[in-house]
Amino acid sequence: MNLEELIQNLESHWNTGGFLDAVRRGEFDANSGHSFVALLRGIAISEHELIPKRLLSLLWYLPLFLEWQKERIAEANSSNTVSYEDFVTEVQNVLEEVLGVP
Prior knowledge:
This protein is an all-alpha fold. It has one domain (3-41, 50-99). It has 6 helices and no strands. The longest helix has 19 residues, at 81-99.
């Protein structure tokens, strides 16, 4: 998948009706979470490749957004809390692999 397709795919997850929109409403589905992590794992950016600003904005905001939703997920369905917390940790780990750390 090229970067433009990746951006479109990520935007669809952020848009109304997308996976991250569901999370915003307190709805977390572990299977959808696994699919989302697989999408992130598929990102391949070479060491010297420039990252489009839009892609960077879609990725860097994820950990903050997901942290903010923990309480909402717990209120909506407390049985999903541990699964959601594992998902958040996995997203953070994958983003570290994809983008690197300082």
